[in-house]
Specification:
Blueprint: E1 8-13, H1 17-28, E2 33-39, H2 43-51, E3 66-67, H3 70-77, E4 81-84, H4 88-100, E5 105-107, H5 115-126, E6 131-133, H6 141-151, E7 158-164, H7 168-179, E8 187-197, E9 213-223, E10 228-234, E11 246-251, E12 254-257, E13 260-264, E14 270-274, E15 276-280, E16 290-296, E17 299-303, H8 313-331, H9 339-358, E18 362-363
Parallel strand pairs: 1-2, 1-4, 2-3, 4-5, 5-6, 7-10
Antiparallel strand pairs: 7-11, 8-9, 8-18, 9-10, 11-12, 12-13, 13-14, 15-16, 16-17
Helix pairs in contact: 1-8, 5-9, 6-7, 7-9
Domain Gfo/Idh/MocA-like oxidoreductase N-terminal: 9-130
Region (Disordered): 359-383
GO molecular function, one term: nucleotide binding
Length: 383
């Protein structure tokens, strides 16, 4: 293999749920990724990693090199890039240390906890650090197909979007893309209401009983003047059997509602098309069990680059953000999700929380990352 064909050596910092999911994805794609090692302070996890791996999603893991510190990971594993799966506060000094060592970083969401920390992280990138953020929800297969419809012009100029697919900065990220919004200011109104609902399955399995539980239902309206975005999410919505995700985008010439696209043809007649999920492994299929992609009227809007790996949609989006980061670092490809984009998502969700707490309309202000640098990895070849 030449340098551009070799697998990317990935280091991981942390050994919690997110790290274990990352490991599962990396091990499922050995032709693309090699686990250079995992740095964790948890001695029991290090022992398990070396012997048998860490379980994830109820499935056994695979062994991986384990290190007690980040410097040991860098010295012993020599990763091309590091996936940082620590909470935002704990991640900041580690990001700075990795940047000082010249190691590219893909850090967990949110990028930082406060506006001041977000600005400091952008300054690090402006000074030459290669730091990106593992925001994945806009890359989930259906969501990517839906956003492709919104951006295609098929609906005309987009005027409204209603997104109820993910919480906080994740949902805001999808909403901004549905509206085609960048870093411009917006006026926000929001509310958070406590409600009762049936419990949802957890990471450990189905609920023990069907007694109603408290949940917080969040709603926010982001007014960009010529476009209005509605963010909605229920705390128990992930995995819920009775709270489904929803995405609505309306334009001057049509609308997308979940998987249905409504427009008017050149003949003046109404048209209705459906986003088609194309997958192997159904009745009579002997191809394996994997997603091929999403198509609209026979045209691919999302094509799964990781088939035939057996990965669910959320893990396909994880594979995509890691692959994009690896391609950027090794080959000079387009950078993945920037610190500036992630900072704007987090800033907006912090302002949504402030609007809900105060009961007042909040006007956002320009932030320094809006004109900040996007990482161009120093060691990458330009394409």
């Amino acid at each position: 293999m030449n340098a551009q064909e070799r697998t990317a050596r990935i280091g991981i910092v942390g050994s919690g749920f997110r790290a274990r999911t990352m490991l599962r994805v990396l091990h499922a794609l050995p032709d693309r990724f090699e686990v250079a090692g995992v740095a964790t302070r948890n001695a029991a996890d290090r022992e398990a990693l070396a012997a048998r791996g860490l379980p994830a999603a109820g499935l056994p893991g695979l062994p991986a090199p384990a290190y007690a510190s980040v410097p040991e990971l860098l010295d012993g594993g020599a990763p091309d890039l590091v996936l940082l799966t620590l909470p935002a506060g704990a991640a900041q000094p580690v990001i700075r240390d990795l940047a000082a060592a010249g190691v590219p970083v893909l850090t967990e969401t949110p990028a930082a906890g406060t506006v001041e920390e977000l600005a400091a992280l952008q300054r690090l990138v402006d000074d030459g650090a290669c730091v990106h953020v593992a925001e994945q929800y806009h890359l989930e297969p259906l969501v990517e197909a839906q956003l492709a419809v919104a951006a295609s012009g098929l609906l005309g100029a987009v005027t409204d979007a209603h997104v109820a697919v993910a919480h906080d900065y994740h949902g805001i990220s999808v909403l901004r893309r549905a509206l085609g919004a960048g870093f411009e200011d917006t006026e926000i109104t929001a509310r958070r209401d406590v409600r009762r609902v049936l419990p949802s399955p957890s990471r450990a399995g189905d609920p023990d009983d069907l007694a109603l539980v408290d949940t917080v239902h969040a709603t926010a309206w982001l007014d960009y003047g010529d476009r209005l975005g509605t963010y909605e999410f229920d705390d128990v919505q992930y995995r819920s059997w009775v709270r489904s995700p929803a995405l609505l985008v309306r334009g001057e010439r049509g609308e997308l509602r979940d998987d249905v696209v409504r427009t008017v043809g050149t003949d003046g007649q109404p048209r209705r098309a459906t986003l088609e999920r194309v997958a192997a492994g159904g009745a009579g299929s002997h191809e394996g069990l994997f997603l091929r992609g999403y198509a609209l009227d026979g045209e691919w809007l999302h094509h799964n680059a990781f088939r035939p790996a057996r990965l669910p949609d959320d893990e396909l989006s994880i594979a995509r953000i890691v692959a994009d980061m690896a391609d950027h670092v090794l080959h000079g490809s387009t950078p993945p999700y920037s610190v500036a984009e992630a900072a704007q998502d987090q800033y907006l969700q912090l302002e949504v929380r402030r609007a809900a707490a105060s009961g007042e309309r909040v006007r956002t202000r320009p932030q320094p990352w809006a004109h900040g640098r996007v990482c161009r990895h120093a060691g990458a070849e330009t394409s």
